[in-house]
């Protein structure tokens, strides 16, 4: 057994800053770890939870009972809140936050308690307001770690009461260290995210990718796109919709790069035939679509209706010269 933090690849500067906060007695009541999914934020949060409750080391020893229970997610000093994944639109409801606050009101013999809220941006407004009340009146030795892609997905009042630590996507080399022997195009196309790399490199993921790129071709060429009900049923799966947007962004990016004759920077090296189809589109239209896909991804991550997001994108795309 060891410290969870030691299994993290990358982010060493950010991890050092977190330990400095702890060692200087400046660890905040609430901290946001923000950055793309699949880069190790949750492992870092668990590693810092070990450091906060460890019986023998300010950085977590990985050997004491407290550290071992944190690692196994069996500690009374650790509460992990996650969205209700079984819902069509995953969300953290107010009932979960109220149950959490009730449990925090109970006496605890541990030196500290840590609450990790994964995908905290998916708290509904009632849950966010319930959490805000406890952030406004912090309890001694209770520490909140909120994980999310973007700090701007939170209420301004929650942001103002939390310290923010930003994390970046993993490098090509770091991805190969974590998951060796994957297709080269998958390392390049996964945007520095292990979860996306795993999905892309799997047989099912390769099929999903092909489906999403076929959907992109329909989006770009079908003048009656809005009348087709088939794609609306497909994008109801929020995870698939996000995956789809990621694939589109990568291919649009490659099309822009290819027009500059910089082939060595292409990510989707196995999609040369599809990329040729983009030569008829103007640079302005490609750039516009790339920028708008970033917005669509944020909207879907914030629980926007997926079908409406694609419909609105198509309507606005059709108006671009």
Automatic annotation (TrEMBL):
InterPro entries, A to Z: DNA_Rep/Repair_Clamp_Loader, P-loop_NTPase
Protein name: DNA polymerase III delta' subunit
Entries under SUPFAM superfamilies matching the protein: P-loop containing nucleoside triphosphate hydrolases
Pfam families to which the protein is assigned, alphabetical: DNA_pol3_delta2
GO terms for biological process, alphabetical: DNA-templated DNA replication
Source domain of life: Bacteria
């Amino acid at each position: 057994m060891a410290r969870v933090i030691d299994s993290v690849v990358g982010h060493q500067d950010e991890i050092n800053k977190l330990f400095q906060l702890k060692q200087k007695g400046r660890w905040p009541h609430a901290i946001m770890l923000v950055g793309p999914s699949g880069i190790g934020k949750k492992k870092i949060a668990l590693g810092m939870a070990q450091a906060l409750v460890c019986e023998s080391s300010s950085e977590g020893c990985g050997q004491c009972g407290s550290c071992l229970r944190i690692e196994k997610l069996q500690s009374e000093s650790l509460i992990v809140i996650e969205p209700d994944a079984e819902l069509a639109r995953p969300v953290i409801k107010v009932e979960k936050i109220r149950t959490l606050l009730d449990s925090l009101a109970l006496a605890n013999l541990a030196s500290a308690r840590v609450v990790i809220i994964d995908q905290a941006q998916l708290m509904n407004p009632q849950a966010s307001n319930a959490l805000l009340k406890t952030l406004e009146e912090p309890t001694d030795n209770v520490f909140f770690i909120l994980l999310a892609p973007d700090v701007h997905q939170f209420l301004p009042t929650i942001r103002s009461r939390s310290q923010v630590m930003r994390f970046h996507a993993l490098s090509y080399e770091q991805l190969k260290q974590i998951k060796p022997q994957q297709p080269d195009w998958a390392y390049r196309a996964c945007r520095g995210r292990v979860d996306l790399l795993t999905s892309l490199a799997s047989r099912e993921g390769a099929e999903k990718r092909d489906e999403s790129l076929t959907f992109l071709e329909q989006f770009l060429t079908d003048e009656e796109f809005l009348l087709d009900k088939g794609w609306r049923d497909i994008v109801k799966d929020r995870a698939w919709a996000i995956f789809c947007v990621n694939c589109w962004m990568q291919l649009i990016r490659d099309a822009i790069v290819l027009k500059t004759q910089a082939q060595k920077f292409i990510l989707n090296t196995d999609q040369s035939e599809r990329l040729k189809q983009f030569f008829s589109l103007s640079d302005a239209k490609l750039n516009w679509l790339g920028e708008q896909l970033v917005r669509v991804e944020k909207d879907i991550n914030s629980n926007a209706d997926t079908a409406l997001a694609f419909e609105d994108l198509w309507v606005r795309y059709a108006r671009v010269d």
